[in-house]
Amino acid sequence: FFFQAEDGIRDAQESRGLGDVYKRQKYHAELLVEEFPEFLEKSFHLTGAYIGVLDFPFKTVDEENDEEYAHLDQGGDRIITYIGSSKSHKFILKKTLPKGENVGLTYDVFKEVVPPDPQPGDDGAVVELPPNYLYVDNVVKQPKMYFFRIPKLGAYLALPLVYESCLHEGAFDEGVEGRLRYHADRETKENERKEKEADILENIENAKKNGDDTAALEDQLHNLVAEEVTETPFKLVKKEYVVCVDTLGQDREILEQDRKKLLDYVEGLVQAWQNCEKELLSHDIDQQLQYRATHKAEEILRAWQEAEEKAVDEAQKNVPPELADKESEVTFILDGARLDTVKHQLLNDAKEHLLHLTHYRVLKFTFLLQQVLYFLGYRKGEINVPGTNLLDWKKVAPHINEEDFFHRIEAYNPHGAKPE
Question: What is the mean pLDDT of residues 100-107?
Fold first, then answer.
């Protein structure tokens, strides 16, 4: 599996063989769709395994509504919607779990519980706290259980999968500035160390001239280190899922040792997911700092803007006299001049910068890129997360190449049909 024993899993022997796949995974959310629940079902001989996300209810997106989160009804309570399952439980996908006083037991896994401080037992050992999961040994006797199909004898286990995500624009912006401060602070502390070192060396030299003992000064020099500097932690956003498994139809419990293993796997996935995101964001930040060092973005943008304005001014001067009073005709000519310039920039000066974007995991100004893609004829289904207005960067990045994106720009006619 993607966690090894040293990552906190008690027994990874039975899952050997999947390790490389999961360690290379850069989109851990995709594992929840089928691969992870399918693995759990087979490994523990379960009837089913399925995963829900706790979020606002989904709603159909109006074609005229371009808001980023138009697919969510943010006026209601957050509910569990099932987004992944083993192959045997595809019937549950996209369904929601009812929530109420007498139904929806699974919601209890998300309750904020402050555990008591562990107290030493009689023998001095720390008493182990109860596990963080919800377990029902006989589902037909639990009145709050909700069944999507006919109830059958068996057990049910729900484990919270809650992780802190840093792959978002806010974390990227703050991370870039935070790393700049970190490097500046390290440089300051190192300069302070060098100054102290120079002072100590001078004192040692003076002590030698005066015949004084230098042992204490030499110890001081030997132990001199720069004051430690820590980088500001990344800005995090909580993501909440629930991993559900059952033995319905088998009329058996889920053994405690299996429950512990299942919890280990879920917690291992969370740890691997968070570590991977931090590495990806850190890589993006380093790339951005390197880009800033070699490219003066503000100067580049200013030059592009000046080129557009110059093209528009030239076009304005060359408007035929007979069209000067026809506002729509003039606007058409000026817009065409601007778009011609933008097209030239995209195919030449801007190409390097656009291709560079494909190396990032976190993308800024997604709405702007999205509008450009629509403008070039890409459909929502090609570039967005299904059923939403959210740009799917994993889908889009492969399109940013000579054969696709830039070919469409080359073929685009900025003049179009003249106004009537």
Answer: 90
